[in-house]
């Protein structure tokens, strides 16, 4: 595979790849070394530097063992950095997450010598100028993300392209990618600069109160800016097939039903995703329920499904004023937890968010689905990060109450109302199932329990029990 020179675009738009044919671009020219704290991570929720990573992942994810996988990474890196000595490319095994295998790449560039035929070059050649002391080499660090299940990276790359041009959010841009398996790895991949900073979940215990307040303000600003980015439909971001993954080729698509290719019936004629069209919140719920109902009846051969029950419940909630139905949808990260936030601490009183990772689930959603309280800011260390019930209770400590007040003042009343309303907490659980489906029986039981609680709030009679194949 011959490398292709990068396009002369601004860094935010340097996203390369076609859906079908691999078009991996060469690395950009190495930048000065960027020192990283020990917790620096890739755009993956669980990625950590781990030179002696556990072999358990090889068995757990049924992936190729590192001793045979590393030579493939070496080959890909050599193709992406033409003309670079193999000794200047360092490959580092890292601990990945549940969805991505992670590899660190470091490219060492020697100090630049004076340009030939210039006065400094002649002076150096004639010995008129003593040789300067040796300077440390420039090192540029990258993260290589490889989907464990070989899923398409087009949507993730399109999301990063979009966010990078719409928001002032520090994100790991894409410098090279392949949505094809026709490459040295035999797998799809995404290459990104390694961002500076330490993962917040590791840094949090060492932060003082002033730094935590500073972080609460920044988190509120980030949440407000995300919420302020709107669309006319609930949609995910994708890349137009065969047209690369730059911001100019981003498409807005309906939720994918089913969410992955492994559950698609090859005989099914209905596409899993469609171009998004303007809609209200109530229309989104009803249309999505219809799509899931059709899918389960035709591809899963179920006689009954719970989706008509949700559609009827949404209408009842809306009629009683408990479900707003605007035609505006708000951008949300959906996984904005400490493990996906990088920080630096420039002073004893300040913290700066240096990176926001893992945008794979980001989308435009109803306002109540886009707002949630970061309860981990004011709860104890053992608190469950996804337990929203804690957001309905007052913090137990004065420090916690101050941090919550700082965040609430930063995001505003509308955000707080959506985040803390009991109906909206339950609807956010429903929204999750609308995204991922009810492929397992325990999910169907939990779904039914939440619907029953919502029906109790509006005095609706519960739906009939499901029958048919499970």
UniProtKB/TrEMBL annotation:
Pfam families found in the cross-reference section: APH
Region (Disordered): 1-67
Bias (Basic and acidic residues) ranges: 9-23
Listed Low complexity bias regions: 37-59
InterPro entries for this protein: AGP_Transferase, Aminoglycoside_PTrfase, Kinase-like_dom_sf
Aminoglycoside phosphotransferase domain mapped to chain residues: 141-366
Protein name in UniProt: Aminoglycoside phosphotransferase domain-containing protein
Organism for this UniProt entry: Massariosphaeria phaeospora
């Amino acid at each position: 595979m011959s490398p292709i020179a990068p396009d002369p675009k601004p860094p935010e738009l340097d996203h390369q790849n076609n859906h079908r044919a691999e078009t991996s671009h060469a690395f950009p020219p190495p930048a000065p070394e960027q020192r990283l704290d020990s917790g620096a991570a890739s755009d993956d929720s669980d990625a950590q530097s781990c030179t002696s990573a556990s072999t358990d992942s090889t068995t757990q994810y049924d992936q190729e063992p590192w001793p045979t996988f590393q030579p493939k990474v070496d080959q890909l890196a050599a193709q992406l950095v033409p003309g670079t000595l193999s000794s200047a490319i360092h490959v580092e095994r890292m601990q990945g997450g549940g969805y991505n295998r992670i590899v660190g790449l470091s490219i060492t560039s020697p100090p630049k010598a004076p340009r030939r035929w210039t006065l400094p070059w002649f002076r150096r050649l004639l010995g008129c100028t003593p040789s300067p002391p040796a300077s440390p080499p420039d090192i540029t660090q990258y993260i290589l993300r490889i989907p464990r299940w070989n899923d398409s990276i087009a949507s993730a790359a399109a999301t990063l392209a979009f966010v990078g041009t719409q928001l002032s959010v520090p994100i790991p841009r894409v410098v090279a990618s392949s949505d094809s398996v026709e490459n040295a790895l035999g797998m799809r991949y995404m290459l990104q600069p390694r961002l500076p900073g330490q993962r917040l979940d590791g840094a949090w215990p060492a932060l003082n109160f002033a730094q935590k307040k500073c972080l609460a303000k920044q988190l509120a600003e980030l949440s407000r800016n995300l919420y302020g980015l709107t669309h006319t439909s609930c949609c995910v971001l994708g890349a137009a097939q065969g047209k690369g993954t730059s911001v100019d080729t981003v498409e807005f698509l309906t939720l994918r039903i089913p969410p992955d290719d492994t559950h698609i019936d090859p005989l099914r004629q209905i596409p899993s995703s469609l171009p998004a069209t303007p809609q209200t919140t109530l229309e989104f719920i009803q249309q999505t329920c219809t799509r899931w109902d059709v899918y389960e009846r035709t591809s899963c051969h179920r006689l009954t499904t719970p989706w008509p029950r949700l559609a009827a419940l949404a209408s009842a909630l809306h009629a009683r004023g408990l479900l707003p139905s605007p035609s505006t949808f708000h951008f949300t990260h959906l996984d904005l937890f400490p493990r996906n936030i990088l920080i630096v601490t420039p002073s004893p009183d300040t913290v700066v968010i240096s990176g926001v990772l893992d945008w794979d689930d980001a989308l435009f959603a109803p306002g109540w689905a886009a707002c949630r309280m970061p309860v981990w800011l004011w709860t104890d260390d053992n608190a469950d990060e996804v337990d929203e019930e804690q957001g309905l209770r007052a913090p137990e400590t004065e420090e916690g109450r101050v941090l919550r007040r700082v965040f609430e003042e930063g995001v505003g009343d509308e955000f707080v109302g959506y985040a803390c309303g009991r109906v909206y907490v339950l609807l956010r659980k429903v929204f999750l199932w609308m995204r991922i489906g009810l492929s397992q029986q325990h999910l169907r039981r939990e779904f039914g329990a939440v619907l029953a609680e919502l029906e109790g709030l509006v005095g609706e009679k519960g739906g009939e029990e499901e029958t048919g194949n499970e």
